[in-house]
Amino acid sequence: MAGWTNGWRTGSAAAYSGCLMDYTFLVDTYASERLKTLSVWAMFDDTDLDVRPHPNLARDRTFREHMVHQCLSEDKWFTGMFGVDVGAPPLAAEEARLAFIRRYAEDSARRLARLAEKDAEWWRQDVAFFDTIHSRAWIMVRRIAHTAHHRAEQTTLLRLLGRQVWSVYGPSVDTGGLPTNGARTIYAYPNIEALIAGESRGGEKTVLPGPGSHPSTERSGQS
Known about the structure:
By secondary structure, this protein is mainly alpha-helical. 44% of the residues lie in helices and 6% in strands. It has 2 domains: 21-163, Four Helix Bundle (Hemerythrin (Met), subunit A), CATH 1.20.120.450; 165-223, no CATH class.
């Protein structure tokens, strides 16, 4: 019988086979994560690829290495754990920002199409996850969290580089501050097609209003 040990689910997904489950939300989430990832890449300048903006980052990934990791890691997870091979090299032939954007956009679109074909039984099936066993649904949740974790590292790099940061999940300082002060969610681009077209022309992101005059705190009575 399935249970929990130190925060990890144990046992087979078959224990839940009697439950009706629609896994469409995982496909939809992966679709939105593609745009979020590419949007963050679009926020960097071409000159940012190998810049480490602080001495404490001497051993951390550069923006270029973040893109390399995203492409290689996702290819490894999808081919090994999901059996989804897009039949293309995971890295761009030219290691330039726009080339990475196009490569990841194309490969992730193929993965999305393959995921959309899978039924509930496929998502429930237990497969190898490094040295453990988990359902493909569980692994997809981990994959999405993995990507979001590294994307947060990249937005930190953007701040240290002095770049503007558009919305990823909600308002940012550059879109007006905090929601409590009326800040809006403003995405750099509405979709991936517009993103690639805009970046191919040198950048056509949505204009940002700036941080406004309010402090970045939800505490009342502070100005």
